[in-house]
Structure formats: structure tokens, C-alpha cells
Amino acid sequence: MGAGRDLYAGGKMGARFNRDRLNPIPTDGETFTLAAITDITERKRAEELRLVHAGMQLHAAELEELNRELANASRFKTQFVATMSHELRTPLTRSSERRNC
């Protein structure tokens, strides 16, 4: 009874309790259930924090990759602008020198 399942009961102030063990106790004509109850509030909070932390680590790794891609794109842009500037200035300088002669 209850094996392999998380059975929860609520408590005051949002506390969560896990009914770990449910043991049927047969008596004359009736069956009672003995329940072992454990406060799992902190354990559940820790699990939630681990999940959030893992998600944040994944997000941070994605951001680092995007930053690398942006840095590469920025370097390419800088090289392109420098090359184009040089290529445009060289013919313009020659043509202005010819006019001044």
C-alpha cells in the first residue's frame, strides 16, 4: 500500500509531509493503517533549487556560446570595414592626386 508512490499531506505555512510508509494492521473485524510521516519540505526545496540551478547552468552555457559567436561576428565586421575602407581610399586618393597635377 503506497509503495513507490509519493503520498503527501499539507501542513501549516506550506510545509509538505511525505507519508513514507503505510502499513495495514488487521484487527478483529477492522483494519487500521499505520502511517509514518516525515517532513520533506526542506528536501523538496533542495530538489527544486537543484533543478533551477541546473537550468541556470544550461542557460549560462548557451549565453557563453552566443557571446563567442557575437565576438567572432564583431571581429569579422571590423576586418571587413577596415578592408573596405582601405579599398575605397586607395582609388580615391589616386584620382584626387591626378586632379591636383
Number of helices: 1
Gyration radius over CA: 35 Å
Q: Going across the biggest sheet, name each strand in turn.
A: 1-2-3
How does the overall form come out from the CA principal axes? Answer: rod-shaped
Largest sheet, in brief, is: 3 strands, antiparallel
Fraction of residues in helices?
Answer: 55-70%
Secondary-structure-derived class? alpha+beta
Strand elements, count = 3
Separation of the first and last Cα atoms: 103 Å
Oligomer: single chain
Q: What percent strand?
A: 15-25%
**What number is the mean pLDDT?**
80
Q: Spell the H/E element sequence.
A: EEEH
The residue ranges in which pLDDT falls below 50 over 5 or more consecutive positions are none
Short synopsis of the structure:
With 101 residues, this protein is of the alpha+beta class. The protein has one helix at residues 41-100; strands at residues 8-10, 16-26, 31-39.
